[in-house]
Amino acid sequence: MAAPKELTLRPYQEEVVQTALKGENSIIWLPTGGGKTRAAVYVVKKHLETTANAKVAVLVNKVHLVDQHFDNEFSLFLGKRYRIKPISGDSDDKDLFGCLVKDSDLIICTAQILENALTSTEEEKHVELTDFTLLVIDECHHTQKESVYNKIMGRYVEKKVRKEGNLPQVLGLTASPGTGGNKSLDKAVEHVLQICANLDSVIVSTKNYTPVLEKVVPRPIKQYDIVEKRALDPFGDHLKLMMSIIHGYLPSTVSRGLRDMGTQEYEADVVELEKTGVKQENRLIAQCALHLRQYNDALLINDTIRMVDAFNVLDEFYKSKNNKLLDGTDFFLQGLFEENRVELRQLALDARYENPKLATLQGTLLKEFRKEEKQCTLLEKKKEPRGILFSKTRRGTHCLYDWVNSNSELQKANIRAGILTGTGTGVNHMNQSLQKTTITDFRKGLINLLISTSVAEEGLDIPECNLVVRYGLLTNEIAQLQASGRARAANSVYSVVAEEGGRELRREYTNEYLESLGSKAIDQVQRMSPREFRIKISELQRTAVLIRIHDEKRKDERKQRYSPGQVQLQCRGCFIHVCSGEDIRKIENSHHVNINSEFKRHYKTGGQLFLERTFEDWEPGRVISCSNCDKDWGMEIKFKRAATLPCLKIKSFSLNTPGGKFTHKQWKDVEFQVKEFDFSDYMSSCYPDLDLDD
After folding, report:
1. How many alpha carbons lie under 13 Å from residue 286 in its C-beta half-sphere?
2. Which of 291, 401, 435, 668 is deepest in the core (most CB within 10 A)?
3. Do 183 and 54 share a domain, yes or no?
4. What is the pTM assigned to this prediction?
5. β-pairing, 84-87 with 653-657?
6. Do 290 and 310 fall into the same domain?
7. Same domain (yes/no): 385, 450
8. Do 9 and 77 form a contact (C-beta atoms < 8 A)?
9. Do both 169 and 196 map to the same domain?
10. Within this chain, do residues 280 and 182 fall inside the same structural domain, yes or no?
């Protein structure tokens, strides 16, 4: 058997692991590319070597990081000697999590897998925090608010406060805890202390080897590629005119409160407006709001990408019209677009008024790719330039990809683009396999420009880049810092393409200030005396436990507010009553199905749905929609290959209760207790003549 690869650390890594090597809880704060994961591997190795009955869990917040950490780090250095098991939602054996933990020395899993196991009542799946001796939490700055990391650590802190059991050591990894959006030093310090309290850890960073770290992780050259404000925008102006016509169709009291078109604030306004229409059972308001949101999306795309991309978004929406023309509102909205469709398309194709940001972006890309190519000889092909272009939305990445591939100048520069977005089942989502292929192609150089959403900002093992561009983004200082950390090649460039005086530019300047403020806050926390730090952390932890107990009590009370029979579900598109809360059952605490056989008359089925991963007890069936208005309701699932059940999206319905009408994004927010699905009872009700008694 070959010897495991030698594990060595740089001086600054050796410095930051010292607290963990003493068995104390700590957060390692190093920049992107500084080798946090390698430091964690070292700590895990020493822990396994020196701790009796050691059991380690490495938690990540994204599925693709499970295999990445396993393949590139932990298996490489520890795989010959220890039993290591990577488990994610895509793993076929995740349902035996409890058994796998017993049979392994080291588990690498998504945090949600561990959370599910902690709450499971099934022996094969269940684990306790006390089953582990060390928890490693990757990207641990997410351990706050309602994140799954904080749910896990909330249990940890409560057990600590109650002095229950032998809790595992904690090791957190982060490139930036952030400031929590706070702009004063005192508040930023409070935020850092809260992160420390949530993780029950001190925060450590290099003090003696900063020059070494700066040499390993050089800061990129930052540049602002400023775009002058668009002189004329007839396409955008025409969209706004059409939106004004819709405003005129609405009651004046409603349209008067809407903020500026083409902004995130306007989007928030029409989202609330749609909810108002649903609660009032006013289709005029609800449908106008839905259509106005589509127009606003088009304006936002027009402000960032090509006019034709904005037009196509609207055109596809009206061509695919899932909802039928039920009343005058539908005829008005459909007719308005059809009457203006030709003119909109002509305006969208008029190159004189194209988005000037794209010309600036083109110049930025060409400058860096051509510069790097000139510096490369035939013998230095490995130095071929690579770049990442960050865009806000999945749709935006696809539009930019089309633009790059249709741009002759960019093609002459041999720019080969690829898309990287989050996983999911909707439009523009990527499956896990395609994600991995894209990242592999980028590493090999088959792709040299990655057009990505925030999914590439943190965690991913991506090659050094010569260029990172943030394009049309409004994010916090953590995202900005993570993105800039991707530009790690020598003399790399971090570019912000933004309109002069625009919100993106103002946000970038704010983030620079917050990044500096965050460093000062960490420094102040590190300067606290051990006694002062412990007292503060204990106060924050006791407060968090009390709040958690209070919130759990309120959640339980909310679940009991109405009996299932008091709640009626209505289609959010046409307001017809379709079922009672009594008809709903939950499977695995996440899938909500209707068991009433009469429910089938309310929906129609579409195409077969295919999901990348498989599930233990069920498989996806056909998509379903309202038979009256075509509103998407979810899908059918085949449970144990015997029962076909409609699985419903709560956001497609409104709930009529004795206390009024409500809309919800998630089933966990409904105010009645949903019963567990009993397969035997259901099958018995379907086949009453089948006698299984002895």
Report:
1. 20
2. 291
3. yes
4. 0.91
5. unpaired
6. yes
7. yes
8. no
9. yes
10. no
Max CA separation in the chain (angstroms): 84
Interval 320-353: pLDDT, tens: 875 578 899 999 999 999 999 999 999 999 999 9
Burial (Cβ within 10 Å: 0-12, 13-18, ≥19) of residue 47: buried
Return the C-alpha torsion angle 85, 89, 90, 93, nearest 10.
Answer: 50
Count: domains in the chain: 4
Q: Give the chain's radius of gyration (CA, Å).
A: 27
Per-residue pLDDT tens digits for 604-632: 999 998 876 777 789 999 999 999 999 99
In a domain, 557, yes or no: no
User: 57 Cβ partners below 8 Å, 6+ apart?
Assistant: 101, 106, 107, 108, 109, 114, 132, 134, 135, 136, 168
Domain annotation covers residue 622: yes
Within 8 A by CB and 6+ apart from 631, the residues are 322, 323, 571, 572, 573, 574, 625, 652
SS3 518: helix
Domain assignment present for 660: yes
The DSSP 8-state label assigned to residue 463 in this structure reads -
Going by C-alpha positions, the residue among 133, 82, 84, 91 that lies closest to residue 112 is 91
Where do the H-state alpha helices sit in 280-382? 283-304, 307-320, 328-348, 356-375
| Same-domain pairing of 507 and 378 | yes
Q: Please report whether residue 109 resides in a domain.
A: yes
Please report, for residues 78, 427, 601, 629, the alpha-carbon distance to residue 604 in angstroms, rounded to integers and kept in the order given: 53, 21, 8, 10
Distance in angstroms (rounded) separating the CA atoms of residues 665 and 271: 12
| Distance from C-alpha of 109 to C-alpha of 152, rounded to nearest angstrom | 13
Tokens of 362: 């083109």
| CB-CB contact of 61 with 35 (8 Å) | no
